[in-house]
């Protein structure tokens, strides 16, 4: 990650209200924990197709929901977070992926981890707390003044 540029964060959550809440939480957390001289931009998407069309080669962090049920842009296309993750890592190999899901299939979760996810977070009551911990880890290891 390049510390001379603005931190680019992507949020992909298909449920409208969950998307709004998560995006606000991420913005608030970045405002609180990033060094003042580090700018940032959070882009929020509700469909996999919309997300893929807007992935930047300089993307730093992507927070992805695994199950994407509302892809209004094309009813014939149904992507999941794992497929989006693979695409993002092809376009932006240094991107840190945080996958958030209620997925209970151990073999799929294992494959996601093998494919390079930075953090896999099971959706439960403390989801935002776990996302916050993962974001802070990325910030501390890549966007602090000591780097």
| Total number of strands | 5
CATH class of the domain at 21-32 and 39-69 and 77-103 and 111-142: Alpha Beta
| Multimeric organization | single chain
The DSSP helix count reads 5
Largest sheet: 5 strands, parallel
Share of helix, binned: 40-55%
N- to C-terminal separation?
Answer: 10 Å
SSE arrangement, N to C = EHEHEHEHEH
Report the average pLDDT across residues.
Answer: 86
Strand order of the largest sheet: 2-1-3-4-5
* CATH architecture name of the domain at 21-32 and 39-69 and 77-103 and 111-142: 3-Layer(aba) Sandwich
Keywords:
single chain; 147 residues; alpha/beta; Rossmann fold; globular
Quick recap of the structure?
The chain has 147 residues and is α/β, with parallel strands linked by helices. It has helices at 16-33, 48-53, 81-91, 106-114, 127-142; strands spanning 7-12, 40-45, 61-65, 96-101, 119-122. Strands 2-1-3-4-5 form a five-stranded parallel beta sheet, with helices on both faces.
Could you characterize the architecture of this molecule?
41% of the residues lie in helices and 18% in strands. The longest helix is centred in the first third of the chain and has 18 residues, at 16-33. Helix 3 (81-91) links the parallel strand 3 and strand 4. The chain has 147 residues and is an alpha/beta fold. The chain is globular, with a radius of gyration of 14 Å. It has a domain at 21-32 and 39-69 and 77-103 and 111-142: Rossmann fold. It has a five-stranded parallel β-sheet with strand order 2-1-3-4-5, with helices on both faces.
């Amino acid at each position: 990650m390049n510390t001379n540029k603005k931190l680019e964060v992507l949020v992909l959550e298909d449920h409208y209200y969950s998307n709004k809440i998560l995006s606000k939480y991420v913005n608030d957390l970045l405002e609180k924990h990033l060094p003042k001289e580090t700018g940032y931009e959070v882009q929020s998407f509700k469909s996999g197709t919309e997300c893929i069309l807007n992935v930047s080669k300089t993307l730093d962090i992507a927070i992805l929901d695994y199950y994407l049920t509302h892809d209004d842009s094309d009813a014939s296309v149904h992507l999941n977070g794992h497929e989006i993750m693979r695409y993002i890592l092809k376009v932006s190999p240094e991107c840190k992926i945080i996958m958030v899901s209620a997925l209970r299939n151990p073999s799929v979760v294992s494959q996601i981890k093998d494919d390079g996810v930075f953090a896999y977070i099971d959706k439960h009551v403390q989801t935002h707390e776990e996302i916050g911990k993962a974001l802070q880890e990325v910030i501390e290891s890549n966007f602090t003044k000591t780097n």
